[in-house]
Structures are given as C-alpha cells and as structure tokens.
C-alpha cells in the first residue's frame, strides 16, 4: 500500500504515548520526618491500646460483614477480593509500603472520596472495605498522604465498596461506563480509578474551561493505559498545565441501591469533608523495609 510522503512525515511527527511496562514500575514509601516525629512525640507507641491488642495501629479484621452486605455471595471469592493467601511473591511489598506510610502518619482510617464514610484500615488483606488508589488530584477534604510511584508523588485515596457497587453517571453527558464492580476489593490500584471514563471533554481544574484533548491520548487511556490520566494537559484558556484528565467527584451522579431494602439513595458528591491536619506536603523518600 502506497502512502504519500506528507502522510508518512505526519505520522513520524505525531506524538506517541507509550504504554508503560509494569515490570519497571516501583512503589516506595514517602514519609515526612517532621510528621513522623510529631506523631511519635504525641504518644508512646507501645502504650497505644490498639498496639497492645494487635501489635499494630491497624485493625485486625474480625469478619467480612461490610463486604457481604454489598456484594453477592457469588462474588465473594479470590477473583473479586484480594485475600492474604492470594499474594504472589513480592505482593506483600505493596501492603507493607502502604501500611508503613499510613502508620507513620497515624492514619488508621481514611474517608471514602465519594460518600465521606470513614473506612478502617486492616493489617492484612483485604486491607479495606473498598479499594485504595493513587491519584495526582487532591480531592476536597482528603488527607494529603503520598506514596512514590515511578518516582512521582501520588495521593492515597479510597473508595468504599458501597460506592463502587453503585450506579455512576456523568453529569455532563450521561455516560454510565464506570464499572466499579469489576475492581478487586481490598487492594491498591496505582492509577486514578475515578477518572477511567473519559467520556467527554475535561474541564480545567483552575478556570473550569473545556479542554480539547488529543484523540490519540484518549484512545490509549480507553485501551487500558490508565497511568496516562496523570499526564499534564495544557488549558488553552488560562495556560495551566496539570492533570486536567483527573475527574472531580462532582463530575458524577452516584445512586446507591440498598441490597436489603431495595431503596435507592443518591450520594451527595459535593459534600465537603473535614480531614485531619497533616502539615506540609510529603517530600522525603523512605525505602521499604
């Protein structure tokens, strides 16, 4: 098949977004020594009641009632939930890194970014009654605790199982493609799961103007390269270059169906949460031990 020289040159000059090889990714702790010192000075570790009972500041899971109330019995298995026995070699590094970072900041629970419910963090898989995920967008009211992924700082945020198994609808175009039920519960995702649906033009996080995104970038994201959600995109209106592809919670309408009463509840995604004051952003890297 013959192609014109102009077409060949345009293809050569076209910007490529390469799919990252997961083999080269690295997750590392990111602990602010000042916050760590402040928490250590505030209380003696071994005098903490939780530590006395469990040997850790994190809860020891006694049952799976919160998960069973939402997901059907047929989904209660190692395919849909990350259990401790399912960890492959090296998989425990994710748990240790996550718990070490949260523990250093005395974060024993985190609020769901959708419904604001505080979710206790457990010491073993499944680590939470929902999912952890990493994002570059600090959503309102969420503690600013970081992990380093591929050398970049990402915020740790959570979604509860009830919100994941709810009906999500884009407020701009009515898209309903968010499939929280397909995500594995109790573990960590290294990309912003809330922003997976790239259904309509994103809005600038600074001036709220619509942004035209290269179709190739959107296609790569739709093909599963979700780390590209964190790529910097420039707003033509105000010139701001940042993670405009990351969706705010106000982008969605979320309707929750109660499995027991069949009642439909609308989740208010515009509610502001009050989070613990954690001090300055975290900038110091600490390796996993």
UniProtKB/TrEMBL annotation:
Ranges where the Headcase middle domain occurs: 52-245
Listed InterPro entries: Headcase, Headcase_mid
Pfam families: Headcase (PF16002)
Protein name: Headcase middle domain-containing protein
Source organism of this protein record: Pristionchus mayeri
